[in-house]
């Protein structure tokens, strides 16, 4: 997927170390039957991509809040953007984490 | 707020002072007349004679759309899933339709779309309150039929009003007053419609427009409302709220429905919030019927006016808001006038995080996927978390990938029902009637999903430092019965993958002490799961759990 011109993240370059941690967290929190490296950074987490749904998102939010010391707060629109892709989620965590 | 059959019309909104705050939108208090102005403004813009497909996300604009439709005599269609093919099936055969939504883009192509979401400045004289015929059909809600076609159920104004009045009596009584109401639940299910929309608007409460999702959102949304507050939620959401490390504002009561709530979770929630938790029993067909307070009592009390009777193994409810006697979808035991215990959900219905559907419907949809020769859905054993158990499907489909099957199912199903995983097999053995027998399915699950290591007994021990002991009881610690039962239920559920609907019977034989080494043993029986907690050769407690859903085809 081409991300040029898309407001994916506030960072200029993706934080690849954090991205790898977040991918591992997604796989372990949701018990997915794939390896963390198989999650394409820009592929959608919802629907046709990884196929996550609102239950997964709530599950994931809890783990993220414990791991990074932040509470996810979002209306549904924003929520959709945050969980749009691994990279978007990583950027959000990067901006809001306290640990 | 009582209605006698001789009354033929009722006001759209009850006769409270026009300045009384009725709802909160974006942190702003709106009085009855603000709300009514928005309703009447929209009502004027609805096309004559059209049915209304109400797809607004925001609870305020959903309610404005619903009441605008009512005031014009229009029926609101309330589909319970956002899947496009479900929407299309709901709208099929409706000749004249307008879709209301607060989204920029119409959620459904090819249908006349009217965007709502802009407040109208109140001008001119005070609006007049419309009166509505009690017999007017106001809403159409849907259940999933076994053939994949959504089955419509119609609700009339007067009967919805009666149901809300009966429920409000229970809830306001438990909460100690009329509440500000916030819901984490979907709007287009009977539970969300009754408890998060109509209850506050018709029974003197205050409705929040928000549907908070994350625990921190729930806390913020509650804090925005004046006390007393009622939180309308589900067991799944409640678990996550309790697990999250978020400070919650005071609530006067909690309400749960859609899936069985364990007494232990109820007790935990009551302790954390310092408020009573009520649970509602009902269905799409009947609306709300009964309540209980599971931390105190497992039996259900029917709402005022409702009566029950049993005939040939079926239970019928009538009276109150019910137009005609209705057969229940569950097996119940009647305990006395207005009291019953829930024995068993009927086999075909399954429940994934509070959303219900029928296995027959899922199997039907699976069989229609191109390239699928045979397929069957099942509920596999619970892995890490029984609150969020997923369905699996066995499929015979040479040359077809799991992704192709998921893509074919996705437009037709709520995502929580998508099979995870899909297991490809060469053959699904069927009996002479073409059915997959429960034993066959269990064998498939054992062979492919590792259900065969399930032990029929596990050890149990409550460490001395467990926080429950100092209070239970000071100086003489023993394990509370509810903790024993909760441990037993969790052990059985996580080892067998079964979902238990609650406790049928339990007997405590002797107290259990801190650090006492015990065992939980169980066996699966037609009437449920019989369990025994023992310490050495001595019985500590025994009883029977009810099964929530059965994996059968």
Automatic annotation (TrEMBL), chain B:
Span of domain AMP-dependent synthetase/ligase: 126-302
Keyword Cytoplasm tagged: no
One annotated GO molecular function: medium-chain fatty acid-CoA ligase activity
Domain ApeI dehydratase-like: 458-543
Any Gene Ontology biological process: fatty acid metabolic process
Keywords: Ligase
Similarity comment text for this entry: Belongs to the ATP-dependent AMP-binding enzyme family.
PANTHER family according to UniProt: ACYL-COA SYNTHETASE, ACYL-COA SYNTHETASE FAMILY MEMBER 3
Descriptive protein name: Acyl-coenzyme A synthetase/AMP-(Fatty) acid ligase
Species in which this protein is naturally found: Rhodocyclus tenuis (Rhodospirillum tenue)
